[in-house]
Amino acid sequence: QVINLADYRPTDFVLERVDLTFELDPTETKVEARLIFHRREDADPAAPLVLAGEDLVLVSLLFDQMEMEPGRYHVSPDSLTINDLPKSEPFEITITTMINPEANTQLMGLYRSNGVYCTQCEAEGFRRITYFPDRPDVLSVYTVNIIADKAANPLLLSNGNFLGGAGYGEGKHFAAWFDPHPKPSYLFALVAGDLGVVEDTFTTLSGREVALKIYVEHGKEPNAAYAMDALKRSMKWDEEVFGREYDLDIFMIVAVSDFNFGAMENKGLNIFNDKYILADPETATDQDYANIEAIVAHEYFHNWTGNRITCRDWFQLCLKEGLTVYRDHEFSADQRSRAVKRIAEVRHLRSEQFAEDAGPLAHPVRPAAYKEINNFYTTTVYEKGSEVTRMIATILGADLFKKGLDLYFERHDGQAATVEDFVQCFADVSGRDFTQFSLWYNQSGTPQISVETAFDAAAKTFTVNLGQSIPPTPGQPVKQPMHIPLKFALLGADGAGLAPTTITGGDVSEDVLHLTLQNQSFTFSGIAEQPVLSLNRGFSAPVTLHFSQSPEALSLIARHENDLFSRWQALTDMALPVLTAAAKAAGNGSEIVPDAVLKQTLLTVAADDSLEPAFRAQALTIPSEMDIARAIGSDIDPDAVHRARQTILGDIALTGADTFATIYQSMQDKGAFSPDAASAGKRALKNAALSYLAHASKSPTAAAQAFADADNMTDLSQALSVLAQHFPDAEETQAALSSFESRFNGNPLVMDKWFSIQAGIPGEKALARITALMAGPHFNAGNPNRVRALIGSFAFSNPTGFHRPDGEGYRFLAGEILFHDKRNPQLAARLLTSMRSWRMLEKNRAAHAKAALETISTADGLSNDVRDIVDRILEG
Ligand code: ARG
Ligand code: ZN
């Protein structure tokens, strides 16, 4: 069943207030919902009240406290319909349902994880708790009473402020919570169990004291210190940068070990995958610290962008997610190195979102139709949504952008808003017309920009001819030209900036060319020497440039741009053609020719002590096998891509052996461990060098030594990863893997690193390794983190292993999808997206992939989630 944006209409009934009472029991939890409604003024006076439900047992139904006559209502597997309701007066419906948290393996609604009751309601999980108008435009004030066994559940939490609690006879107790802020059901949360707590306080801008609490498994309290610190920094930053203050007396985070995603922004009671809370130097990598900081901030920032202002319907998901990702990106950029953060964002955007946009699952930032909303929590909605927000900031400049956001907060506080509402605020403060810009929300596909330049020495003019085209995507064969803001700089031969006297050809603000036509020429006057154009600086627009710049021009940018992002981009632009040519050569058996300019430029940047180590580490990380495959675009042979990349890396490693040895020595940090960005950058550079050294020496000795010497998880796991990637069969590698296992087997989150490192080992033995690990003692198919670490890493990050030519990788994955679909459809659907680029493969592999997809497609009893993805992947 397809839901269409165009069909939106408000509900017939307004929900005035919600009173919930939970009597918790592992298998028989009773939920009483007292709902006060009135019919909307302009609604049909005969319209029934239709409430959504899923996997519920209806125990009783009251109308104004009296049992409802059976003829007045109708229950179906997914709804409760009530007729003959008052024309205008308020009325009360009391619904009692029975649910089974233990049996809830989907992890949507109320479930139990490790003995802790918790909830996940976004997007449509609340209907698995009680019958309800479970849609984001129904905002209401909630009171929640929780009754539970006191010994097993000393802790009873819900949204808002604590009202009180007491004993409740027979070893039970209760607690009551009241959330004064009207909210949609997807922001409801309940937690009950026995957990440890870390406490702190935060004093807001206006001087209110907020109690901060992070709940974790007993004994893990010290590992929540970094998350608490990140929370306080987020609260302060949101006040300083966006003027947003927190609005309740208490802010709580609960970490649980079974969770389908990263975390959830429930009002006042965020629930997290514990992977994104728990950290200490012994068990967390620098990446883990950065993720914790970003996700704690993201969920906190949702309090304004998502909760105070929510979405009218799920088509508007990017309204909260794109904006909140933009906010967390800015936060991390302010806390760390802005350029390095930007590089990481763009790497991620290209490898995930561009791939999505180029395949059968492509959809607009704001989709117009969906069959299963769970499948739209994508990098397009989140990350491209963030880039679209960033472009608004680029077009308006910081001051007007801030004014527009302030207007948005003022105008829509307490509402369920739309993308149009959001964009209108920026139009209103600037007087700009955003009609063409808004195509970014509605057209899918990555714009392809052609760039050609001409220099006229006599006339002292430099002309830039730009063309834009957006490839066809599912449901959108033809596109309109978009408004694409391209930041630029012109560099002279010495690398210094050139200032044109005038620029003609279209709208140009200071350092931005506004490409708005399909073909457009900008002419720069007063340019006395042949300039080098640096375009799309800072990645101002999420597009692909087709611009063949000479290696010399790219090398100039790589050495002299003052935008570090553009320097990195130039290195990537030098590397990709070399790598794709190498892959073609590897594919037809001819010799792979390394490129001298690329190698020299890369080594120069790597050795440049004036640059921050984190940036140098990024420079040394050449495009991945997936990046190369995407650049080739069709008839992909993953083995050839792998051989090509290894050959190029090997060549860099050999030439740069001394450079890498020097870097490796100079980046050793002898002091106490600190997770700060500068220290993390040194570790990143050191470990990048270690990987090249392993390549050059062809011996596991250095990595084995690094493994033995490591005093933190970043170094330890990087050394293990170098051993596993380069020397999978070496004794040193086996010894390191077992030592890691015996040291960390009590910590499942750390064992996930052990799983994913092994899952990523390339080559034909990969699948056998996966199945052996699945049969081993540490794997647990019921835990999403374990499944993602092992099976997800294999399918998403091991091209040669997964795409083996005999198709066994695909058949294995199909079996796993069908298995997981029975217990946790969202997890299964997400794993299946690893097959989305199957049409790009050479025809033998593509045929195997298609057959495996057909096995899934023809299986009985598929979930809506997997059905939707498999259909689109096979069709598109
Ligand atoms: N809103 C949550 C977050 O960004 C994610 C919820 C995911 N829900 C889902 N059904 N996929 O931050
Ligand atoms: Zn979010």
Mind explaining what this structure looks like?
With 876 residues, the chain is α+β, with helices and mostly antiparallel strands. It is built from 27 helices and 33 strands. An 8-stranded mixed beta sheet has the order 6-5-9-3-2-12-15-14, with no helix packed on it. Strands 17-18-19-21-20 form a 5-stranded mixed beta sheet, with helices on one face. Strands 28-31-26-25-33 form a 5-stranded mixed beta sheet, with no helix packed on it. Helix 12 (613-620) packs parallel to helix 16 and helix 25 (825-832) packs parallel to helix 27. The mean pLDDT is 98. The structure holds arginine and zinc ion. The site of zinc ion (ZN) has 4 residues, from helix 3. InterPro entries: Aminopeptidase_N-like_N (IPR045357), Aminopeptidase_N-like_N_sf (IPR042097), PepN_Ig-like_sf (IPR038438), Peptidase_M1 (IPR001930), Peptidase_M1_dom (IPR014782), Peptidase_M1_pepN (IPR012779), Peptidase_M1_pepN_C (IPR024601), Peptidase_M1_pepN_C_sf (IPR037144). Residues 226-437 form the Peptidase M1 membrane alanine aminopeptidase domain. This is Aminopeptidase N. Belongs to the peptidase M1 family.
Summarize the structure.
By secondary structure, the chain is α+β, with helices and mostly antiparallel strands. 41% of the residues lie in helices and 21% in strands.
Features of this protein?
876 residues; alpha+beta; 8-stranded mixed sheet; 27 helices; binds arginine; binds zinc ion
